[in-house]
User: Fold this.
Amino acid sequence: MADLVLHTLEWVPELPRGYVRDIRVRWALEEARLPYEVATVPFQDQSADHLAHQPFGQVPWLTDGDVSIFESGAILLYLGERSEALLPREPHRRAQAIEWLFAALNSVEMATLPQNFLEFCKDRGTPGRKFFDDFASKRLDRMEKVLSDREWIAGGAFSAADILMADVLRLVDRSDGLSKHPACRAYLERAKARPAFVKAYDDQMAHFAAADRKRAQG
Ligand SMILES: N[C@@H](CCC(=O)N[C@@H](CS)C(=O)NCC(=O)O)C(=O)O
Assistant:
């Protein structure tokens, strides 16, 4: 068994497929060319063991021998210690990658996720929706400026920050939320064209398709 084990859900319905956050970890592992295995927990009924590894009963988490770590951002930082493909060693570039990794989660995703939830609930045209649409737009407008003159987010080379930023933008794009932000969309397309993303995405889809087949067999 590989040292690195990615823990994810055994099965999910169609809607979240391709977007379950284990994709961030799969993508990072592929970029870093680190061998890993996948272990699963049930879609419902979180066990005490699951909660011991991920206290919110979510996925993903990663184990590395007797080390266990949850939160996709923390996992990517952890893997960054193993590979310069994820986190540069040079101090200035490393600082940029770390700040943008947090910005993806704590400044962009925190503004876009409420909008996404409201869209999912078909909450349209309400004052609450307008508030969160404006909030998300403000962040995306800033990202548009930032991404208009750079290929990758953290000063030059691709890093773990791009995995998180692109994955956050991917969910926005799913409901056409990048239509007024062409630089964000072009950045997202560059990220999605990376072979490591393609492999991670295909693997996640294949994982859930295999779970469907298993369920159908009873
Ligand atoms: N902040 C967490 C969020 C993880 C998360 O939202 N996981 C979803 C799957 S994409 C999940 O497990 N949802 C089930 C639930 O919240 O009960 C991370 O980035 O790892």
